[in-house]
Amino acid sequence: MKKSVVITTINKPNENIKKISNLCLKDQSDFIIIGDKKTPKNFIIKYGNYYGIKSQEKLKFQFSKVCKKNNYARKNIGYLISMKNKSKVIIETDDDNFPKDNFIKNIKLKHKVKQVKIKNNDWVNIYNIFTVNNKKSIWPRGLPLNKIDEIPKLSNKKKSKNFYLQQGVCEGNPDVDALYRILNKKINVKFKKNYSVDLGKAFSPTNSQNTIWFNRYFPLMYLPSTCEMRVTDIWRGIIALNIIIKDRSSILFFGTTMKQIRNIHDLTDDLKQEFSLYKNLEKGLEKLKKLKLDKGNKNYLKNLLVSYKALIKEKIFNPNELKYLYAWIDDIKKLN
Question: Omega into 256 within 30° of 0, i.e. cis?
Fold first, then answer.
């Protein structure tokens, strides 16, 4: 199974990036680093392929020609490069995440796990079953605030199945929203190790910090370009998850191969960005749930387009999003 690790960064190579590079070299996996306008021009890495703005614009992808600068959605270009290089698995993370030695090791499609059981395809706080001795409530970024206390219930028996999308939880300073960070000044969370669950038909936010995609779901990796940076991966995950559930499948959550050592953030700005998400998330998901989508991976791009058009109609997304989405769809079709 050929694997690629994809990150985007505006920083010089730090200890996290160097560790990823070393692990990729050891595993003989591709390492693709996507730069942006603010990335240092003299970016040099021992092992891996760095793509600055000029290199990206020379690629024969429609998306790389239209993608805005200073935008996290440039990470889409890294996904497309991985697909062109015939990767079967794409692992994505960020430059403020420190990988453990098992970060790339032992990645497999099939897992035998218990499934989350919940009525009405509702939200769950997945962190509730991964935390170890945590006395305070903790919830993932993107979970509606009125769902914080939703504790997942698990089935009694384990079942083996394929998971084409696998979301890792990152311990240390994990993926939580700005409100949680404002209320909790010191964050050092431990998650269960070597622990996995099947999300079933429940909904929980996924992110782009430690996320494993197998090639069946590659078309669903699209990060939207016109929403705030703090919420692009959350919307990507909710849209993808709705398509996956309607295709009678589910995703895996696992812990833990990554520790987040968070970059400096302006929490007030983060909160402003996240506000639009909490304002629209439940309304948007209800709209997505009502869509009639065609089953099968051959219809994923079509379902992706239907989903974004529905959210644009609800004025949750800017109509300009379609320009970037059409470019992504065109690139995926050409790659296939």
Answer: yes
Contact 75, 6 (CB under 8 A): yes
The sign one gets for the Cα dihedral 177, 79, 249, 158 is: negative
Residue 73 to residue 77: CA distance in whole angstroms: 8
pLDDT in tens, 150-207: 888 999 999 999 999 999 999 999 999 999 999 988 888 999 999 999 999 999 999 9
pLDDT single digits (tens) 10-34: 999 999 999 999 999 999 999 999 9
Contact present, 31 and 13 (Cβ < 8 Å)? no
Give the chain's domains with CATH numbers.
3-335 (3.90.550)
In sequence order, what DSSP letters do the residues of 172-193 get, joined into one string? ES-S--HHHHHH-SS--B-B-S
The predicted-structure confidence for 114-124, as pLDDT tens digits, reads as follows 999 987 678 99
Residues facing residue 112 across a β-bridge: 160
Q: Which residue has the tokens 């079953």?
A: 129
> What residue type is 45 in one-letter code?
I
Instruction: Give the CA dihedral 300, 294, 198, 279, nearest 10 degrees.
Output: 80
Contact indicator for 180, 156 with CB cutoff of 8 Å: no
299: Cβ–Cβ under 8 A, 6 or more apart, which residues? Answer: 293
Q: What is the pTM of this model?
A: 0.96
